[in-house]
Structures are given as structure tokens and as C-alpha cells.
Amino acid sequence: MDSSNYFIWETDPVMFSIPEFYLPFPVSIWGLLLAAVLIYFGYQKIKPDPKSKNAAEPPAWQFWGVILGSIIIGQLPFLFIDSPSISSIGPVEPRWYGLMFASAFIFGYLIGFKEFKDAGRSQEELDRLLIYVLVATIIGARLGHVFFYEAEFYLRNIHLIPQVWTGGLASHGAAIGIIIAMYLYAKRTPKTTFMWVADRVVPGVAIGGMFIRFGNFFNSEILGMPTDVSWAIVFANVDMMPRHPSMLYEAVLCILVLAVLGWIYYKYNSKPPEGSLFGTFLVILFTGRFLIEFTKETQADFLIGATLDMGQLLSVPFVLIGVWLLWKKVNWSREGAKMKR
Fold it and tell me: Which residues span the domain enclosing 84?
């Protein structure tokens, strides 16, 4: 196939580069950890009392004084005690994928903020949920890749499993991790059910999935199979073969899921029947994932030549759970779900 007839993508995954910067003196790593502890307790001393009606935020000089003072005090003991230290910073190379990953949580949080406000819930509850979901996403995605795609390699190299920065995250693993996090959050939060939490989390997951797939596009990863369709893309950083832009298919799928969830949410005046958003999310997203997998290169080597790949095998249970929820558990006509006319 003549690659010159197709759109060629060769963007550097690195946004920009800042060369290595040498510090005027070594900085103790343990001193930085001590400073973090001091900053926490220092802020507890100056933060406004939530019980006071006239509470005001501390002045800027006091806030920054706590930070700078803690950093200096944290370093002092390690002028006399040996400690691992850093003497240079960099080179700094922010990547497009990192920006997209951060954007996923920022925009997901903004959607959650609107949903929690509509439900009369506090921002503190949302902040706690964000921590649950953030930790679960990273751990779940990493372990998902390890056990679903490269179990043999990582069982021989267990010490490499925590090295998330080397690459290797699986969306199905992230989904499992988030489900566990939602269960734990609901169990530890009064007057909150798992389905209520799940309905408020999945719109953020949908928009987050869109950003993550755009990040994969910048990295030229999760490649589609060679094709001659007119919209094929040549990923010059990989080879000069026109391929399905499978990661963009999934980004569009996430936008579709978000649109449908938004329609249901507003159709029921911000009070969707419990489980409706979660079930709809599972059915549409993972049915789409199942179909899009036909355009992808096989990611699990041990399934090369198989009828279905790992992504499809993992999608089927999610679809079935979603169908069961929508059919058996969601009360679409319940009182209180007053639909807009």
C-alpha cells in the first residue's frame, strides 16, 4: 500500500524538553518527606475553623511561610545525618499522554462536582471519592495489564510490576479497580449505595476514557491492523503501514457513551433511576469495545490466531452484567424519577 495517500502521524509524544538543572547544594530526600509532614501539621494550625461562621482563609504570607519554613527545617537535621539526596533535576520532558491522563481526572471531577451538587452532597464526599477512584484506576490498570496480557513475563520479574512509568496499563483492569473502589466507598459512606455511586462515577469515566485514548494516539500505541480504508492513518513512529486508528474509534465511542448518559441524566431531571447510568455505560462501552477489537492488533501474544482476543473476552462479562442490570434491576418508572416533558 502506498502510504503517501494517507494521513501521516509523526508527532513526538514529548510536549517539550527542559535540560538537566544542577542544584546549588544537594537536597535530602528524607528531608523533603519530613517537610511534607511539617507542612500538613503546620496547615492544621492555621487553617480556618469549619465550625466558625466568620472563619477566613489564612493570609498568603502565612500559608507560604509554613511551606518554606517546613522545607528549611526539614533539611536541617540531614546536614549532619547521612541521607539519600538529589543534586540535579531533569531533564524534564512532559508528555502528551501525561497531560491527557491529568485532564481525564480534572474533567471527570468537574462532572462529579455537578452531580454531587445536584444531589445535595458535599464537596468533601466527592474529594474522598476522587482519591478512591484515582488510586484504583492506577493500580487496577497496571495489574490488569500484568495479569491479562503479560502474566508470564511479570511472574518472572515481579520487581518490575510497580514500574507504571515504563508503560503497560489495561482499561479492563482499571474498570475492575474502579468497581472495587466504588463498593468500598459506598460501604464507608453513610446513606450511600453502590449503584448511586456508580451512576455518578461512570460519566466521568467516559470522558476520562476519551482523554486517555487521545493520549494513546499521541503515543502511537494501541494500533489498529493494516487497512486500505480512506481514513487510515500512518503512524510514522512505528512503521509506514496505513492502519485503523483504533484508539480514536474508542475515543469517539466514549463521547457517544457520555452523550447517552447525559441524555438519561437530564431526561430524569438529574435523578436517574439507580443503576440506569451504570448499566447503560457497561452495555454501550463494552459492546463498542468488543467490536473495535476486531480492528486492533492482538496485544496478548498467547492469543495470536485465536477467534477472540483478550479485550473481547474481558468485555463480554461487563456487557452481560449491564444487560442484567437494565433488565432486572433498574426501575425505569419509579416514583420520583419525574421525566422532563
Answer: 21-89
CB 217 within 8 A of CB 248: yes
Sign of the Cα torsion 107, 256, 241, 234 reads negative
Taking phi first (over 0 means left), then psi (-120 to 50 degrees means alpha), and beta for anything else, what does residue 336 get? left
As a whole-number percent, the residues of the chain with pLDDT over 70 amount to 92
- Whether the pLDDT of residue 341 is over 80: the answer is no
5 CB neighbour count, 10 Å cutoff: 11
Same-domain status, 55 and 181: no
65, 89, 113: which is the final residue of a domain?
Answer: 89
What is residue 59's predicted lDDT score, i.e. its pLDDT? Answer: 86
Domain contains 220: yes
Residue 55's pLDDT is what?
A: 67
Region of residue 222 (phi > 0: left; psi between -120 and 50: alpha; otherwise: beta)? left
- 305-335 burial, b at 16+ Cβ within 10 Å, e below that, comes to eeeebbbbbbbeebbebbeebbeeebeeeee
| Cell of residue 325, nine digits | 442490570
User: In the predicted model, what is the mean pLDDT of the chain?
Assistant: 89
**Which contiguous run of DSSP H or E holds residue 148?**
helix 123-148
